[in-house]
Amino acid sequence: MRNLIPQYIVTAIFVLLIVSNSCISQSKEPETTITVTTKNAVKEISGDMLGLSYETKDILSGDDSSYYFRPDNKALLQMIKTIGVENIRIGGNSVDAANIPIPKAEDIDSFFRFAKAANVKVIYSFRLKDGDPEAAKSAAAIIYENYKDLVESFAIGNEPFYYEDDDELIAKWQSIYDAILEVFPDAVFSGPDQNCKG
Known about the structure:
Radius of gyration: 19 Å
CATH architecture of the largest domain: Alpha-Beta Barrel
Strand content: 15-25%
Number of helices: 5
Structural class: alpha/beta
Number of strands: 6
Shape: globular
Number of domains: 2
Order of helices and strands: EHEEHEHEHEH
CATH superfamily of the largest domain: Glycosidases
């Protein structure tokens, strides 16, 4: 399904993405003028373009053992539906943070039940740095057995520039990839989020 969006909205989103990019130099640059015209014809864009990205820690239960992503969080469900979100990515820096627990079965279950209620697809990230192939395999098995139809793709790790040794990175990534495929043989993988190093 495709949506028609005026060109000036697409242009405005593009400009916001450029301005918010963390790789932009903080040095003083000459002023630039950007003019947005509203007279251009509309362009077709993918109906599933709009998505949100959350940290892995956001699917963990809180201090009171409750979940933010749960199928009865009506306010969040309404927000997702109102703004037209079609997919949610779970990952970010906390996927590889040693001080953040790897999501357990109940964490994964609550999140995916929310995703089903919200009618969104999921890009789900597995820990790479100090990650455990067996833990990834267990999580993938839960997702495959219960929520396979909600998965857009999997990612392994986040911001791999932080690895100094490419061979170590590739070997670690491959071991987790292979473990996931053992239980989710038709899994689709997307690249991890990336930053600018230095």
